[in-house]
Amino acid sequence: ITIGLLGCKTTENIPYNFDQPSSTIKLKKELNEISGLHCTSDTTVSCVQDEKATIYELDSRTGDIRSTFDFGHDGDFEGIAILRDTAYILRSDGSIFVSAGSQKAKKHSFGKDDDFDFEGLCLDEKNMRLLVACKTHGKKKKEKYIFIYEFSIVNNKYAKEPLFVLDKEDIHPNFKPSAIGVHPNGNIYILSSFSKTLLVLNEKGRMQNKTQLNSYIYHQPEGICFDS
């Protein structure tokens, strides 16, 4: 597993040259099953173990493990976001686990009966919410759309309706979100490991750009986050 730090070569709306990462870091075997990324500072990144309730804090320059924390629940975890001393962890069924002050996490369910599969979570601090990306929707007739939900970090509840509904026909027929992140400029980046596509939306959910990633460089891209 590698973390690529991308150099800045401006293209339209995307200030990165994805074909030429400025550096690549090889992580330890212990981190083979990490999923989701969150930049806790300009030198640290946090991630969650996919199958166990372990949060790792890594040095983003070397990949070394600085600390670990067990939040008390096992499951299929796909995303992480952190605000000060509170960690938010996404399970694949849409449940959000909230751990404040290094306490055992409390579960907040998605609340719908359909067979949803989630694989992207990020903090939108400006709007005091989490953005949650749905990989696959429970109803086949809705599979042509991409659903982005919002979860309030004020009352720890999902909004009843999706925040954004995007038509795959405008993006890529095989686009399945695997990660989501809010850029410091407010744009929303959504990554699809399945189609190797990176989508950029503005704050209102309108598409700004889409980029096809080199599958040789990005073999299984499942996390994205931004430092300052």
What descriptors fit this protein?
mainly beta, five-stranded antiparallel sheet, four-stranded antiparallel sheet
Helix proportion of residues, in percent? Answer: under 10%
Our count of helices gives 0
Taken as a percent bin, the fraction of beta residues is: over 45%
Order of helices and strands: EEEEEEEEEEEEEEEEEEE
Total number of strands: 19
What report would you give on this structure?
The chain is mostly beta strands and 228 residues long. 0% of the residues lie in helices and 47% in strands. The protein has no helices and 19 strands. Strands 11, 12, 13, 14 and 15 form a 5-stranded antiparallel beta sheet that branches. Strands 3-4-5-6 form a 4-stranded antiparallel beta sheet, with no helix packed on it. Strands 7-8-9-10 form a 4-stranded antiparallel beta sheet, with no helix packed on it. Strand 3 (34-39) and strand 4 form a beta hairpin. The protein starts with a strand and ends in a 16-residue tail after the last strand.
